[in-house]
Every structure is written in structure tokens, then in C-alpha cells.
Write a structure and sequence with these properties.
2 copies of one chain form a homodimer.
Chain A lengths: L1 H15 L3 E4 L16 H6 L7 E5 L3 E5 L4 H8 L5 E4 L8 H8 L5 E5 L5 H12 L4 E5 L4 H4 L12 E2 L2 H4 L3 H14 L4 E4 L2 H8 L1 E2 L12 E5 L3 E5 L6 H9 L3 E4 L3 H9 L26 E4 L6 H5 L5 E4 L4 H6 L3 H28 L7 H13 L4 E4 L4 E4 L23 E6 L1 E3 L2 E2 L2 E6 L5 H18 L3 E2 L4 H5 L4 H4 L10 E3 L8 E6 L14 E4 L2 E4 L3 E4 L2 E7 L10 E6 L17 H18 L5 H10 L6
Parallel strand pairs in A: 1-5, 3-4, 5-6, 8-13, 11-12, 13-14
Antiparallel strand pairs in A: 1-2, 2-3, 7-9, 8-10, 10-11, 15-18, 16-17, 17-20, 18-19, 21-28, 22-23, 24-27, 25-26, 27-28
Chain lengths: ~625, ~625
């Protein structure tokens, strides 16, 4: 099947005089997770990893992926004739650099206009021009012909996210957005990121695995708000509600043509274009409309339809609106974390009882946890694929068990479970590392050094203006002291019944782009440690940024974190020698909170288990 | 005098049909400190602060400066008709935005082509074009006419920095640089930053206050190295030495015309230009030369002379070569820090004896310290203007005493002295905060919280790839805990008998651009705390980055810091309640090092003082 599609692709290239095609892992919305309809790269390479880019020429093909997927890609590409390029290995060319190496000067290279960010294409166009290679957009419509059994577009119905949970109605959100447009002198704003559309329209759906999102675009002008959504997706009452809030509905497929009609310049170049564009001025000028769009994330095709407009190239303000949760959203996050904590406590108790029998495997454990989450109210589904990993599997950061890899959870090593839920009132993400037997001294030291960073970050107060990159270090100091390190960030933003990963903030030495942490933001706190062949450790809670009234002075505000996640941390793995007194108090205080909050929701046997699990260390 | 120059400027603008002129605080080399010859902004505004930009139109003028200089600028601009714009105050327009506000659409705005970075002009050109305003370069030659008493160009003779101190000869440095040119496919590299020229040519001078630099440009091609330097600057033997190393000497004034001759494209556009430029290719192509230049720092005029070349727009590799000190440079840095420590110890003992008399002032203390530094071998001069600040003056971060502000150093508050020396074998930068009376509990808590951060950073081991922004936090945690903060970075790079500020690394939450710290780099470690109206605290040592053999494993290297600065820290200000046991040990260990290293160089009375000052806290 992959070979068929690959052959189709090559025939298409030959017929159109193109020397190469780049097939990214992408949809027209810049999504992290893809609807099946857009898994073309997977379909024509056979490689199922979440990250990977394919380049196809008449006689060569390459797939680029990162270290998480080296082994999987080797296995899945074997015999395909597709060469594996290992991103992150020094000397590995980028896909675009390899395109240039494979093509003669004078070659034409094709790309799907909706599947690459405009800024990426602009940069690559310039770089390839140096080699005499030109880039040409092709329409995604051809994919249907190239891919015989292409899955249909996602067809799950959309549903309303009630104002009581969203904390703000759509009309209010549009008014607020328009204030920003006015301040920036923008006439319109194009929104294609699915979580931004969902947030703005108080709409949820099930078009993408793990993410309660709906495939749609939005265009907001000073007096219109158009939602481009597949016909039939919206139940009548939801459609009516949106219309009452001032939203016009349009077919999903009209998005690009409508942009073109309004901002393309047209034949009469009504809005000016070319050189005139530079002189288009303020409100009273006759120049083109000023459209706010983030060319770093918007697709090439989208930006191309704005030829007649002047662009305000900045990240969408919705990213920040969405990241700063209001009271209703924070309340919802707190409530769903109680239900999630109840499921986790029942799960850990069950594991403690069942693991010694030797019959619990990584997969059956994950299934049991899902069952327990389903017992909670408002549960919709997992927020990402569960990492249930025993022993050496825990050292593979993005491990997820399958039938082939599944092993029994034992009592000799460490068990790591990283999972989360989508609830109608919020999103959770929690990791616990547990030993069901007797941990040795090294395991306890390693676990406690990770815990020290986790606790220290959770009790840190920091001044306004501090960004996540600055805080990332705090979770690492106790590991660095012992010559240890982990290769991922310490925290990512989390949506309110939206994606489990969201920006613009990140507690990360590499992902943070300088966005200061602000009250209402929600972040994970997940330091770890990975010893290949032995075990992995990660301890993850979700935190909310809140004001710190005690330290705030008139001239300088301080903020601190509030733990949303409620689940005990394995005390048997703690060796207090590696904790400061403040960290010991922080753990005891956290366990008091977990106990007090969850106890009323637990049946007697589980309540007893929780009492034991949350006993203070300091007596 | 400023009014005369301003009037001349306006006449010049009127005569040339220009609506405005921007006068930055700059020279053609992007220097931090300016030779007097280039202090045009100061000469035509009367404002003497080190940072400030002037905009002049026919009937308006504005000066932009930052919070360090608000008061000084207000005083110096009073009655000048020049409006003060306070950078950092919300709503303050940038100078360029104000230019656009002052000028009608269709206006021409002039700038000095050598005094602005090319990238800055490119950005402003685009922004001003939106308002219908165009930018036009003017030659710096007109400054002589506009400024009647303009100081002559700096005329101090240059001298050789011996290979024994530089650790690498010029010929070797050129070979190494050319390897980088080859790797990047560059045919030539333009060097205008004065410290880069000085490093590359093993040349020092005295053209700029506090900086042992020579005004010169360099051009390095695959087979030539041309030093553009004022005729007569080089003693014959130094000139001969450079020529032996493969350097061709050219008059300073020929720099731009020589670039133009080689890379300007000329009338016959020998190297191609316009559209052809995009297709110029590899070594065997007939396209233009590929010139490596950092358009973010190189002047507009310089880049303009490269019209016929293809540009490789990247920071100069010399910035990193220079930052990573070799063994000879590190040895020199260590040796000069011993002499600097001897001067500081004598100074602190002298202050302890003299201050109670009430006759020592901020200025006389600074003079005494300079005298003591002069007694040391190889001393050349101060590395920056000494900050000698008692009580509330210490809370002004960039305070330097003058006759008007000078006060007696007393015993009731804290005294802060931040100073450094240029030595033939290295550069120093040290801050100590001392109490010559009995500090109260609050002073001790504040001092010790700053010290905790200083010590914690100095004993941190960190993995390869860590950048300064990540480490900056470590120096702040103990302050944040008490709701305190300081508004500057924690560390800057320091040259080896070069500028006291150098990149590309910085231990700073805002200045660090992601450059990882590497063994051989040198950085300051200077957390502080400033209480307006009360006192300031800063504790600064110079550190070298060195390998950490104990923590390094085959798969991951760890680095740590080595203290170069040798001078006791005031133990009377330390309250051990605010230190961890590891920090107490670190201070004691540091004091043992200071004692052991300096003792052999001290006369008996000072040796006795040092013995007391370095007694361990933990007994």
C-alpha cells in the first residue's frame, strides 16, 4: 500500500515536470496530532511515528525523524527503499538541504501549499534559489487521486462548550479580540490553529485523537466573524447559538477562496498591491486591509491568499487569551483534577495489590486506569496515549506499550505511568513513578533527586516578568549536583478541555521563547531521569500560576504555583537525605492537601490506603 | 557650543532637502565606549551619558536615554529645546517612530551610513516606507564642518600583544579563521569590531577610554589579510611583525573604497548582481565572492560596499574564538588577578583604618585604590569607571561619584566598590560591599541572601549545552524567597586584556542569546540588591569555565567554575542562617584559596589583616 502511493506520487511528479516533493507530517491547521485524513506521510512511507518528514524524488526517497523514533523507523522502513535520516545526529542534512543535493540546478520542487508554514517556505525558497532550484505549490486536492484508500475527513459532530465552563461567551470573546485588532490597527485576523478556533467559538469536537477539537478555520474582522466548518458538523442549536453571538457560518472548503475574494487583490487590484502596498497607511488611506496573521504558523496557501492586504505578522493574541485561564476554567481544572486524583488513587491501590501476582502488564495496567477514569463524571477520553512502562521501558521517554513490547509489571524495578484525561471541565496530565517491591539505595537517591527538583519548583516564588526558561533550572540543580540530567523540558502549558500541550509559555530551556509566566497560566512540572537499560523516573503535577500576596510589593508583583494534581508520591522511594527541610515540608504539605481533598470522595478501603500513602515524612 | 552644532546640523538638513537626521551614540566599529572624535551626539546635545540617541528636525529635537540617565539628561538638556524621551517608560515611542511622527509623508530622513548597523537601517527603511518617509545615507565627512572643535582622531600608538601572552600568533589565528571560512564556503570576512581586530592581530592600543583598543578594520580573504589602520599608528617593529605574519597594511581611510573596489560590483558588475546574484553557486561558479559579515553589527556603509558579493550573514567566528581563552590567556588572567587581589586587600585594610576618621570620600577612596593598583606590575589603567558608592549612592546601579555627588564614606551604612584593572596579561572586574561599622540584622540578611546566590552559582556544575540564561536563576533563588530581585544580569563575559564586557555568552535572563558556556570562557558572577534611599549590595568575582572531571561521563560532559578573583568577602555582613551548609563550606574554601594565594605577596601587617579577614565561618 505505501509502495502504491509512492509510485503514484512519482508518476504525478513526472507528469508535472517536478523533480521532488516534500511530504510533511502536517494538516492545514499546523496540528500536533493529525486526523487520519491527513496522515499522507504515514500512508506513503509506512512509518507510523508522530514526527517525520518525507522527501520523494524520481529515484530517491528519505525520511527524517528524531531519536525517539530511530528504531521504529528502521524497522518500518526496512525494504521500502526509503533512506532514514536521523535528525539530531551531527552531519545529518535537513530535508530541504537534501532536496537540493538530490536535484540538479534548474529543477522544480513541489510542496503542498496548505501543509507548510508560510515562513518556512519563504526561507527555503531563498535557500534553494541559491542552488538554482525553484519551489512550486501544489493543491492538496491531488491527494485523493494519489491515495486510493484515503480516510474521509473527520466527521464527528461538534458540540458547544457551555459558557458556564468557558467562563466567557463567544460574543464577549469576539469583542475582546476586536479591541486587540483596533489597538494594533488590524482590520482582520485569520485563525487556523484548531485549539484557537475551539477556544474562540466555545466549540469542542472529536476530530483528532486525544484532542477535543473540530476541524475549522475562523476569520474575524471589525464587524464580522466567520467560522469555516464542514457542513453538517454543527447541531442546529449550536449553529443557532453561534449565529446569535454574531458568528456567520461558511463551508470549510470556502476558506481559501473567501480569503482570496476579500484580500487577494483580484484582477482589479482593488486594495492595491505591488509597490503601492508599501505606502498604504493609516485608517483614512485607501490602501489594502491590514490582516493580522502569524506567518510562522499559518500555511503558505493561506498567506498567499492575502496578496492584496498589508500583513501584521505577529502571533495570534488568542494564544495568550487561551493560556490565561479565567475563574470558571480554573474551577473546572480543579474539579476534574479531583476526579482524576480519585481514579489515580484507586489505580495505585489496585496496582499495589495486583502487581505481586505477576499478572498485571503494562497494557492491562493502562486499561485498568482508563476504566477507573471512565467511572468519573464528565470524562471524555484520555488526553494522550498512556505511557505505562516497567523497568528499562521507563527509560524510553516516549514509550507506549503495544502487544509486541508489553511486559508484566514486576516488583524489582520502577514502574512509570504518564497519563491524562479530557473532561468536559478540564484536562489532566500526571506522571507517577512507583516501586511495588523494595527499592534499592540507588533508586531512592535517583528518585529523590528528581523529587527535590519537582518540589523546589513547586514552592518557588518568582517576580513578574520571569519566563519559563529561567525556572527550568530549578528542577535540575539537585540532578546536576550528581552529574545527572534529563533531555526534555520541565513543563508545558495545558489547555482547559483543550490540547494537553499548549503555548505560549513553557518551563523549558529550549522551548520557552521568552513568554513571562502570568497568573492563570497552567503548566506541567515534570522533571525526570532516564537510565537506559535500567529504569526511568518522572514525577509530574499540573500547576496553576497564582499571585503571591505575601511577597508582592507595590513596585514588584510576585507569583507562585498552586498544585492542581492530587495524588500521593511514593514515599518508599524517598530518601530524605537528598531533600532540604523546606522540600520535606513541601511534600508533607502536599500530602495533607491530597488527603484532605480526596478523602471525602473515596470508599473506606481506598481511604485507608490513602491515609497510609499520605503519612508525613517529618514526624 | 551644542547650540552652534545643532544650528549647523539644521542648516545642513535644509540645504540638502532632508527633514530629519538621527545622531546615534556610535562610531564606525559598533563600540560600547566611543573615542572623543565620535562623540557627536554629546557635542550637539550637551548630554554626556554613555547611552543616548538624538533626533533633529527643522523645528524639533529629541533625546532618548534609559532610566540610568533620566535625571542627568533632564539637567543637561534643560533650556536646550531638546525634548527628553525616557526609554523603558510605557508609551515612549522609539526614536525612529518619532521621526515618522515628526515628518510629513514624502519626507527624506538622513542617517550617517557608518554609524548604524545595516540590519537596523533595513528594518527602519521598511517601517518608514509604510509612512511614506525615505531614508538617505550621508557621509561622516560632513561632521568636520558641522562640529568646529571636533577632537582629532585618536592618535595613541598601537603596540604588540606578545605571542607569549596571546598564546597564539597572528599567522596561526589567520589560518584558523580561514579554516572556518572554508567550511562555510566564504571567500572573505570583514572585521570591524575593535576587540575582534585587536584579538586577531595581537594588537593593543589606547584609542578608547578603559579599553586597550586600536581604531582599525580588517579584511581577511583566503589568501590575504589586510589591516586598515591610521598611518603612523604602528611602530615599525610591530608593522614588520604583522607583515611577517602575512598581514598587509593599508590606510584606515581606504577601508570602504577597498571593499567597494573588490566587492562593489563596479560599473561592469564583474561579479554579477541583481537577479543573477541569487543563482551564484559553488566554488566553480562564476558568481560573486561570498563575504562573511554580520549585518546585525556591521555598519550600513560597510554592507553597502558589498553589493556585488553574496553575503554570508552570521556573527563573526572571532567572537567565539576570543571568548574561549587558551592556556596562556587563562594563565595571564590568573596572574593579574593575584596582583589585583593584592591591591584590593591593601585597599580594604586601608579603608578599615581610615574610614572611621571621616576623611575618606567616595572619590578619594577610588583614587587610593587606583594608586594601589598602579603599584602592581603590568598595570595599564582602570578597566571601567570606578563605582565607589556609600549608603544610598550604592542603590544607584551605575553610580560613579563626581565632585558634586561625592560624600564621605561612613560607618553606619554599606559601602560598595566596583572596579577593575587592565593589565598587560589580563583584565579584572571586582565588586565588594563592606560595612565599616556595625551592620544591623536587615543589612546582614540582605547581604547574605545576595552572597548565597553568588556562592551557589560559583559551586554549580552544569552539563554541556547549558547557556547563561539558565544559570542566572541560581543567583536569584534566595532573593526571590524573600520577595527581592535585582534588575540586571548576573554575569558578562570579560576579555583577556580586552574589553571588560564581551560576548557571545552572558549569565543573564535577557542578554543571553542561547550561547552555551564552554571551557575557557570567562564570566563575571555579580548578583546584587538595591534599596533606593538606603544602600546597594553587589558581590562580584570573575569566574573561568573549566571541565568538571568528577561529573563528566562518556555520554555527557559537565563543566564548573573556577574563581579567578582573589579578595575576601566581608564576614561581618554574613549571617549563616541564610546560607546552606554547602554555601558556608564554599565561602570558607574560597577564603582558604584567597589566603594561600595572596599571603606570599603581602607585607606582614597586611598579611595579618588577611589572616583575620579569611578566618573560616565554620569552626
Amino acid at each position: 500500500m505505501p509502495q502504491t502511493i509512492l509510485a503514484n506520487l512519482r508518476r504525478f511528479l513526472a507528469a508535472n515536470g517536478e523533480s521532488a516533493l516534500v511530504v510533511p507530517s502536517a494538516d492545514p491547521h499546523g496540528s500536533e496530532y493529525l486526523p487520519d485524513h491527513w496522515k499522507l506521510r504515514e500512508a506513503c512511507s509506512g512509518f507510523t511515528g508522530s514526527a517525520g518528514e518525507l522527501v520523494v524524488t524520481a529515484d530517491a526517497a528519505g525520511l527524517w525523524t528524531d531519536s525517539r523514533y530511530y528504531l521504529q523507523a528502521e524497522a518500518q522502513l526496512a525494504g521500502s527503499g526509503i533512506e532514514l535520516f536521523r535528525l539530531g545526529v551531527p552531519g545529518t542534512p535537513s530535508p530541504w538541504a537534501q532536496v537540493a543535493a538530490w536535484c540538479q540546478p534548474g529543477s522544480r520542487v513541489a510542496f503542498f501549499g496548505q501543509l507548510h508554514a508560510h515562513a518556512e517556505i519563504t526561507r527555503q525558497k531563498a535557500a534553494l534559489a541559491e542552488r538554482g532550484v525553484t519551489l512550486h505549490p501544489i493543491s492538496e486536492d491531488v491527494i485523493d487521486d494519489l491515495w486510493p484508500e484515503r480516510p474521509a475527513p473527520a466527521a464527528a459532530p461538534a458540540f458547544a462548550h457551555p459558557d458556564a465552563l468557558a467562563g466567557q461567551g463567544v460574543a464577549d470573546k469576539l469583542t475582546h479580540l476586536r479591541e486587540f485588532l483596533e489597538t494594533e490597527g488590524a482590520d482582520a485576523h485569520v485563525v487556523s490553529a484548531l485549539d484557537a478556533v475551539a477556544w474562540l467559538m466555545n466549540l469542542r469536537g472529536a476530530d483528532i485523537a486525544y484532542n477535543p477539537l473540530v476541524v475549522a478555520h475562523a476569520l474575524v474582522t471589525r464587524d464580522e466573524a466567520i467560522l469555516f466548518i464542514p457542513v453538517g458538523k454543527l447541531p442546529d442549536d449550536v449553529a443557532a447559538g453561534l449565529q446569535t453571538s454574531g458568528v456567520t457560518l461558511a463551508p470549510y472548503g470556502d476558506f481559501l477562496s473567501e480569503l482570496d475574494r476579500r484580500y487577494g487583490g483580484g484582477d482589479d487590484r482593488r486594495y492595491g498591491g505591488g509597490d503601492d502596498r508599501r505606502y498604504g497607511g493609516g485608517d483614512d488611506d485607501a490602501g489594502g486591509a491590514r490582516v493580522w496573521i502569524d506567518t510562522e504558523t499559518a500555511s503558505w496557501a493561506t498567506v498567499d491568499r492575502l496578496r492584496g492586504a498589508r500583513l501584521l505578522e505577529k502571533p495570534s493574541p488568542i494564544t495568550l487569551f487561551k493560556a490565561i485561564k479565567n475563574t470558571a476554567e480554573l474551577d473546572g481544572m480543579r474539579r476534574c483534577h479531583i476526579r482524576d486524583g480519585v481514579a489515580m488513587v484507586r489505580f495505585l491501590k489496585w496496582m499495589e495489590e495486583q502487581v505481586p501476582s505477576g499478572r498485571v502488564t503494562e497494557l492491562s495496567a493502562a486499561a485498568r486506569l482508563l476504566e477507573l477514569r471512565r467511572e468519573g463524571e464528565r470524562f471524555v477520553g484520555p488526553s494522550f496515549e498512556t505511557i505505562s512502562a516497567y523497568g528499562p521501558h521507563g527509560a524510553i521517554v516516549h514509550y507506549a506499550p503495544d502487544q509486541a513490547s508489553d511486559v508484566a509489571v514486576g516488583t524489582d524495578s520502577l514502574y512509570l505511568i504518564d497519563s491524562g484525561g479530557q473532561y468536559l471541565d478540564g484536562t489532566t496530565d500526571i506522571t507517577r513513578t512507583v516501586c511495588f517491591g523494595r527499592p534499592d539505595a540507588k533508586m531512592r537517591e535517583h528518585f529523590t533527586r528528581v523529587l527535590a527538583g519537582h518540589l523546589q519548583l513547586s514552592i518557588t516564588s518568582f517576580p513578574q516578568g520571569t519566563c519559563g526558561k529561567q525556572l527550568d533550572t530549578i528542577a535540575r540543580e539537585k540532578l546536576w549536583e550528581a552529574g545527572l540530567q534529563y533531555g526534555h523540558g520541565t513543563g508545558h502549558g495545558i489547555g482547559a478541555f483543550l490540547g494537553v500541550h499548549e503555548g505560549p509559555h513553557a518551563i523549558s530551556y529550549y522551548r520557552c521563547r521568552g513568554q513571562a509566566l502570568l497568573p492563570g497560566m497552567v503548566t506541567s512540572n515534570e522533571p525526570g531521569l532516564y537510565l537506559p537499560g535500567q529504569y526511568g523516573i518522572r514525577i509530574e503535577n499540573v500547576l496553576a500560576v497564582v499571585p503571591d500576596p505575601e511577597r508582592t510589593r507595590p513596585e514588584l508583583s510576585f507569583y507562585m504555583f498552586d498544585n492542581l494534581t492530587l495524588c500521593p508520591i511514593d514515599r518508599a522511594l524517598v530518601d530524605v537525605r537528598w531533600l532540604t527541610p523546606a522540600q520535606v515540608s513541601a511534600l508533607d504539605e502536599y500530602h495533607r492537601l491530597v488527603r484532605a481533598t480526596l478523602l471525602p470522595h473515596l470508599e473506606p478501603a481506598t481511604a485507608g490506603w490513602l491515609m497510609d500513602a499520605t503519612e508525613p515524612l517529618a514526624k
